[in-house]
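Good morning,

Both structures are done.
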Amino acid sequence: MRVVICGAGQVGFGIAERLSAEENDVSVIDTSHELIQAIRDSLDVRGFIGHGAHPDVLAQAGVDQADMIIAVTLYDEVNMVACQVAHSLFNVPTKIARIRSQSYLQPHWADLFSSNHLPIDVIISPEVEVGELVLRRLEAPGAVDAVRFADGQVVTIGIDLGENCPVVDTPLSQLTELFPDLQAVVVGVLRESRLFVPRSSDAMLVGDRVYVVCKVDQVRRTLGIFGHEEPEAHRVVIAGGGNIGLYVAEALEARGSRARVKIIEMSRDRAIAIADRLKRTVVLHGDALDQDLLQEADVQDADTLVAVTNDDEVNILACVMAKRLGAASNMALINNRSYPAFAGTLGIDATVSPRSVTISKILQHVRRGRIRGVHTIENGLAEVIEAEALDTSPLVGKALRDLNLPDGIRIGAVFRDGKVIVPHGSTKIAAKDRVIIFATADKVRQVEQMFRVSLEFF
């Protein structure tokens, strides 16, 4: 696949890194000499210095032969114009743009991005995606990661195993014997920076992070079995009243949540503006690192503090302070890809990465085959993929025990006719089934092949 990426920032670099590692033909455009030089030095891609919306720069980058353009510069307008130029002058089949401003995304302006106006096939809004991820984490207290598939009926959760985990040192094969009616499958284990798909004889250890695929109504029970019985958050303090903080508060109000929410916002004007939009949420003006203000927000009694300011360091320190003041749990928005690795040692329970969320959303549309959803795990060490099985797929019609799936791939669930099937050795996948698969990074291409096989394959 030939892909042109406009923007060499964190998201652009991350997408280029993933696609080039999978032997795609990638070109990256950015106005920054430093960013382009960095991407040339570290990745097997072509870098071009220039404006991503200018036709001559796009032509130089080979957009006339591209299958896709991904516009993720810092500016919404540049991203939109880049897609327009790629469509009108170069007839690029697929156009993806990151658009942050919520003004462009209002439902009554939805026709703006149609083929007759601004022809963008996929719009990525990081604030919305991150906001939804925060909401899912609030629904699954104790999980360090949570994402839904199969129309919301299947959930993949990441769980850290502590000393109080009752199933530590228990081989996976015995989990079925201990909990025969548990509708969940352990698909991945992160142990000392190594992510692998466990065998049935493998046991989980203290300090492991396990990834489990389960039915949505089994999430709380699954968390309890793995040693996490934290109650659902009813007292929430949000540090940062930007687009993400406001989105989370509005969503909690709109969904009739019983949670009592308080927001701390540094800008007085912004605090007044969001207070006018919210009905039940208390908005406090001040610094999220001010201990007196945190106590005024009753953080000592909070079930969780969610830190979503624009500053990673503020988010980390706010979480640390809240925990020491008595908050039961915390969650930090972190952009720097190196920070999450040691966040746990500081007492941070969960992190959210706009970069990872955006990359996951884009990969959903980059992956070949009938891919319906993608979620990246641990900065790209693995992916959870939802894909639809074709009639000609080698998966169809065979018992799972006879498929001989390679190491690094595990089927977590099958979604058929609106019902979730927890896979066993005798389970057979049928055409049009939606399959949720966990795959390590080096096996993603094989998963793609399983779901894009045509008659020519045979």
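Second structure follows.
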Amino acid sequence: MNLLPASSRLRVAIIGGGFSGAAVAWHLAQMPRPERISISVIEPRPVLGGGLAYSSEEPSHRVNVPAIRMSMAPDDPQHFARWLTGSGELEHDPDAIWKNGDAFPRRRVFGRYVAEHLAPYLGSGLVRHVQGSAIRVTRDASGAGWTVHTSAGPVASDIVVLAATHPQPAIPAALVHLSEAPGFIADPYAPAALAGIGPEASVLIVGSGLTSADMVAELDRRGHRGRILTLSRRGLRSRGHPDVRGEPFGDFASPPATTALGLLRAIRATLTAARAANVNWQSVFDQLRLQGPVLWAALAPPERARLVRRLRVFWDVHRFRIAPQVAAVLDRRHAAGIFDTIAARLVASNDEDGSLAVSFQRRGQTRIGTTRFDAVINTTGPAHGQALQLSPALSSLAEAGLIRTDQYGLGIETGLDSRAIGSDDEAVATLLVAGPLARGTFGELMGLPEVARHAQAVAGEIAKLLVTLPSAQAIGAHAAHGPLAG
């Protein structure tokens, strides 16, 4: 490819090279006249596309969506499934095919799929991988450009896309006394994080969602035979997939509910109708997911806040299902009496010569009990509400008043065009947010299909600048002085 000099191309810097950032880069690279753009993806991992979710080498960590529903290309739902068939991966992993014919490959396989589709653009130079961590982001004094300061050196750009990874789970206050204990695992996806847990060790997993299930499956794969207890405030375990997939069922958008209670009533009524029609509940939640953006948009901010506060945990365990191979491990261990999930509130903890004492109060009880464990694993979920404090790059933007936390504590506030909203309530024209950190605006942005569609939309917003503005220099001038000014 004959590319123009970098100085005459629109420079886009994408902070984060997991699925969100890689998908934005891929969609940008496929735009007409790609010679007009220069794409830098800032990611410390050696390969783009894997991120936290899809870089795990652990064999038991599987995608939790059937391969036929996973795709970088929202307009081609079977994009990944076709690649998977020809990749040879299934020949080495016969357990990936479940009894209903659906494929749930290992997570690293999906990461390989994303990386292979980016490889041609990395080879041509259209996409550049800056292997480093973003430390600080500064805006030029004129407002016409940006500099992303990274551990690999500065990256100058005209547009910045924030596609940062999920923040590491926050350590619950009741467990801070264990933070330095050898048996406490704060980052469950760190390489070999569980390697030191012995086969007979008693294990407490704090949190009962997808990550918790991954940890049980990995321990089981490593030959662990001891007792595992998972604990969460409501004791709700992520649900599984149906034996037979059905089509989405119901209609929640004609018209959409305008209150959280109204939406709850509509869901319950639709579930009742589904049972009468012999339709599984998963089909109802599939329709909810598809109509999610419309439903979220129909709720006023106070109702959105009520939905997040009251119903989010119930939504999560039904929407984000565990792969059937993982569910089978949990069911087998539960039947054997070596795995259980309880609803309880953490109270305190203490490291007593390698024995981790954790005090908790079961839901509905007044007594506080203390149990000793050999290991405690923290899987409380990404600390999205603390993203601006935990990431140096995001923190620098927040301190400059260029981004702020959304009012629901889910991530970064944006407009409907995915542009960040600054402390002055104005959109920053050349600062966009891609992926889960924008879900305060768009609602459901955690599942891969929704993230893929959002990445495509963010790339489309950048494409509009290419259409309306003739050069990188003109883009800078327009952003500083014209109607696109932030």
